[in-house]
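Batch job 17 of 40 flagged for manual review because the log was empty.
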Amino acid sequence: MMPPRHPGFLSLKAVMLGGAVLLIVSGCRTPNAYRTQADSVAGEILTDAWDQAVGRPNDAFTIEPAQDSLRRRLLLDQHLPMSIGASAGSRDDPKIKQWPDADYLTRADPISVPAKSQGGTPKITLNEALVIAASNSRLYQSQRESVFQSALRLDLERNEFRNTWAGVVDSVFSSDLGSTPETNGFVNRNSLDVSKRFANGSQFMGMLAVDLAKLLNGTQEGSTGVRLDSSISIPLMRGSGKFIVTEPLTQAQRDVVYAIYRFERFKRTFSVGIASDYLSVLQQLDRETNAIENYKRVVSSTRRARRLADAGRLPEIQVDQSVQDELRARNSWISATQASQRLLDQFKITLGLPADSMIALDSGEFDLLLNAERYARYLSGSESAGDEQVPAADAAVVLVPPSAEDAGPMEMPQQDAVLVALDNRLDLRVAVGEILDAQRGVVVAADNLRADITLLGSASLGQSRSLGSAGLDDAQLRTDKGFYSLLLGIDLPFERTVERNGYRNALIAYERTIRELQDVEDTVKLEIRNTLREMLESRETIRIQAEAVRVAQRRVDSTDLFLQAGRTEIRDLLEAQNALNTAQDALTSAVVRYRIGELEFQRDLGVLEVADDGLWTEFDPGSYDIDQIRTRLDAARPDQQPTNDDDDSARRTTK
């Protein structure tokens, strides 16, 4: 006769079965669901962190690459060679049959692609180049992913302080053929574990296990076991306290902000680099045009010299001089053409496009520079000094320094520009933040020098079940029959060599961050001052070379007339033509250099706003209150600090 069953036997079996089903179902999430969850968690972290870092959220941030990118379209539309489908993107990469995420990167975003010209070659404007680079550049995508991964690391640190659940379902069938009588049965064990780490360093762990032991022959006895184990660990000295325990979490939070600062700084540097490369290609194309025109002029001069020599009006040696110049001009033309193609191919790589793809840049961007209002009068010749009275040869020479009268809007006073940069440079904010990080590192290292004093408590209720105990009554959770223990562990700090060296290294690291801040700050000031000098030099060079082009053109025209009249040599005409070509190249170079200087200046100030699509918003110098910035920065000066050393908020000012 079977022993009577406990009234709760059926209910415990139901609980056990339900728990097993719950554990199995909870472990059946798809890889796609996990990826979506990771994206959602990281997105929420970054949205909040972006608002904290730069004062505005960034809901549009994503690391999902564009699936219908311009690179892919060029490869397919222009039938360019590819090694494998992955050259066009992950969308076209054949997946192995074990690939776990069928929905990975199935979203096709519409990407703005420039319209094709009549020849089928896309003509790209500067703004389109910025958008294409943000969408196609491999470096840009890697920077996005770095920011995203910083958010995932923060999520891992947060997970250390969440309730952590774990479930295990074991079903074991056993058969003992050597026993008398033969014993067959199974043991089904379900367990649910939970652990929790608290901000003060305490750790709690608990486990609830439900067993079902059942004999399948003989008496067919069965019994249910239930057991509850819990423990708590409380550090009382080393490793205790919210400041010490949550330091990794604090650092991870700050690392996300640093990653955003670095990415925003990267976007500005990257966009200016794209603009610089774009204008450099146009500049080289202009040099190629100048080389072509110079080559044509020299060819015409050689033909004229040949006719004059045949008529006996020019020595043969001057014809040879013209032929030599023609050969040099042809070589210059070929070199300029190849240089243009090299620069354009390199620019394609920078944009993330195939080097053998066919694209064209919009020369209208270059025309806008040449016709810029701020120095249009230089190019028009309205400031020519030809009608001024020339002083006597023995008169004192007075050197007139460059004037700020016709300076561009970005040519701010150096001191004002430095103040704006110190207030806005994101890499400087990172350097400031790392000093505080190093200070916290010193505090943590000092905490490691203390003794370990830990209070341990544990409790165990109920009983487990196996086939050997299948005939017992069902177990119960009774506090009056539990097992309890309390332990105070003390580890005195007799041996702290590692910790001692760690503390000293933390102080060294702190001093290193101070020097790094000083280096960044001095570099910022140097960059600002140098960029302002370069803009001034470029502006003056534009004025000088514009006049040089006019003088060289007059020289070519007059020398050509004198040559036809037999009053000069062919060498004079060739020199005049070379001087014109050199002046034209120098003028376009100065115009490009000045525009790039304006963009670099805004980048160095930290005020060039670049959106996620790569487009920028330029700086308005009149929008900044210099006096307000000066007052805010002066509050951080050592000679302006309050006497209360504990007032950390007053001593450290960050925007």
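Reviewer: the log was empty due to a logging misconfiguration, but the result itself is present. The longest helix spans residues 497-564. Unflagging and moving on to job 18.
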